[in-house]
Amino acid sequence: MVVADPDYTVESSLHAAGARFVIGCDEVGRGAIAGPVAVGLAVLDAAAGEHPAGLRDSKLLSEKRRETMAPLAAAWARQVAVGLASAEEVDRLGITACLGLAGKRALVQLHEAGAHITESIVLLDGSFDWLTPALAHPPRVTTRVKADRDCSSVAAASVVAKVHRDRLMIEADARYPGYGWSGNKGYGSAEHFEAIARLGPSDWHRRTWLRAPGA
């Protein structure tokens, strides 16, 4: 199947409708059983120009290609940020609330770096707005299914967030050896579940999620 590259068409329409900035937004690690959930943001304006050649949704790129693309995507955007919510927070608050919490933390980073949040519209991947309920004074948010595939701002956010989270999992693998996080990045492979059965869960595991497939 041929997958088209993302473009800036949707973002351009949002600029034309009055948004000075578009903030592409995507989450990474929603379905993992270990490690944080991450939300990436990428701020673009109407003068963004062509995105880096080869930019795509992070799921469509190899790990090596993502590592190469992440700094290019960050340099193309005006600003980028990645917010996190920990495994303990996922257990305590639930994944939807933690997506909002991580998104809020990323927006705070942008605000502290001087981003004009009130003049922006957030373009969020998916059909459900989990960001607005987490914010006391939310910016405008619009959702779009497959925005990470079709919209270059969201693809950039996806790649930046994925690389950031993957690096955290690789670093954590050295502190909590045996779970294979350098390879599985905290997702629930059969080998990962076998390691949990052998070693027990770590502080980085989402303990409310530790049911093997079919259990």
Automatic annotation (TrEMBL):
Its EC number is 3.1.26.4. Its main location: cytoplasm. InterPro entries: RNase_HII, RNase_HII/HIII, RNase_HII/HIII_dom, RNaseH-like_sf, RNaseH_sf. GO terms for molecular function: metal ion binding; RNA binding; RNA-DNA hybrid ribonuclease activity. The keyword Hydrolase applies. GO terms for biological process: DNA replication, removal of RNA primer; mismatch repair. Residues 20-215 form the RNase H type-2 domain. It catalyses: Endonucleolytic cleavage to 5'-phosphomonoester. A divalent metal cation binds at residues 26-27, 125. It is found in: Cytoplasm. The keyword Nuclease applies. Its cofactor is Mn(2+); Mg(2+). Belongs to the RNase HII family. Endonuclease that specifically degrades the RNA of RNA-DNA hybrids. This is Ribonuclease. It comes from Galbitalea soli. The lineage of its organism: Bacteria, Bacillati, Actinomycetota, Actinomycetes, Micrococcales.
